[in-house]
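FAQ

Q: What does a record look like?
A: Structure on top, sequence underneath. For example:
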């Protein structure tokens, strides 16, 4: 059994992406769903213009997805793994996770790291540990992270793993950015090859 499935078994829930509605509209839909169902649902991620994620108890998330379609959302996607990730429903599991993190030794990174949970740079092991601790219950500030990276001049991004949803969102937020995928062996080989000249002779 995967760790994700084990968490979902303990705290059943689901996650959905709502594309094409601004965050304020999604927040209103979330509030209405929570009131109508008496269940927890939260906006748990901002992924650029018109890209939002909601997580929580299944009935409330389903209420949001139906309302979002009626409100004219471009796409509504149930995400896997499911679960109420990045929501307050995982507070107890976060405490267990923090206990596990406390047994690990964190060193200062060789280079600053960008946290998707905070949208801020991490320059010390202590900051990295604190950011990881909040990963389960903190809303993802992915768009803030992308904007911060772009402000440094970053214009190439690699989406690691299957799918191309994040890459598509980056293209919407930063039309001039070059986005590389790694979801297949062919894509991975192409991505590695495209970076080879930059590292030649390094």
């Amino acid at each position: 059994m995967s760790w994700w499935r084990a968490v979902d078994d303990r705290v059943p829930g689901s996650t959905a992406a709502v594309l094409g509605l601004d965050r304020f509209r999604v927040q209103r839909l979330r509030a209405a769903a929570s009131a109508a169902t008496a269940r927890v649902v939260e906006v748990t991620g901002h992924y650029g213009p018109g890209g939002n994620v909601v997580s929580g108890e299944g009935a409330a998330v389903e209420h949001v997805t139906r309302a979002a379609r009626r409100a004219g959302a471009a796409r509504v996607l149930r995400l896997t793994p499911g679960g109420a990730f990045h929501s307050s429903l995982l507070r107890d599991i976060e405490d267990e996770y923090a206990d596990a993190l406390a047994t690990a030794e964190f060193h200062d990174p060789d280079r600053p790291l960008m946290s998707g949970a905070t949208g801020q740079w991490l320059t010390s092991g202590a900051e990295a540990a604190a950011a990881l601790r909040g990963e389960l219950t903190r809303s993802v500030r992915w768009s803030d992270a992308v904007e911060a990276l772009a402000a440094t001049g970053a214009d190439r991004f690699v989406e690691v793993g299957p799918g191309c949803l994040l890459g598509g969102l980056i293209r919407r937020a930063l039309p001039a950015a070059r986005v590389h995928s790694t979801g297949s062996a062919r894509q991975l080989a192409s991505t590695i090859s495209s970076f080879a000249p930059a590292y030649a002779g390094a």
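Q: Is there anything notable about this one?
A: The two ends are 42 Å apart (CA to CA).
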